[in-house]
C-alpha cells in the first residue's frame, strides 16, 4: 500500500496540517481541502503543483504563488526564485519525518494509526 503525505508547514518547517492520500492520486487533488480556512502569505511548492486552477484559487485569496512552471508549459508563470529557495525547509521536514521507521516503512495498517504516528513524530521533531 502506498500512501502520500500532503503536508503544510510554516516558514520554519514545522508541521501545521497534513492529510493522507492514496499513492495513485495526483499531487494537487488534496491541496484545496488542506489550505481551506487558513490564512498565510505565500505557498511554496515544486513543479508537481503547477496547475492553473490551484494558482487561481491562491490568487483569489491574495496568496503569493511561488511555484515554478513545468518545462513543457506553453505560458510559464513567473515565480520568485529567491523565495523558492526556502522550499528546503519543507524538504527537511519530510527527511526528519522519514527518520521514524514506522513512517518510512508504513508499518501501521490503518490510516488512523498512521495519522497518529505522523502526529507523534511531528511533535518529537518540534521539541528537538
TrEMBL record:
<feature type="domain" description="Transposase IS4-like">
    <location>
        <begin position="4"/>
        <end position="123"/>
    </location>
</feature>
<dbReference type="GO" id="GO:0003677">
    <property type="term" value="F:DNA binding"/>
</dbReference>
<dbReference type="GO" id="GO:0004803">
    <property type="term" value="F:transposase activity"/>
</dbReference>
<dbReference type="InterPro" id="IPR002559">
    <property type="entry name" value="Transposase_11"/>
</dbReference>
<dbReference type="Pfam" id="PF01609">
    <property type="entry name" value="DDE_Tnp_1"/>
</dbReference>
<dbReference type="GO" id="GO:0006313">
    <property type="term" value="P:DNA transposition"/>
</dbReference>
<protein>
    <submittedName>
        <fullName>Transposase</fullName>
    </submittedName>
</protein>
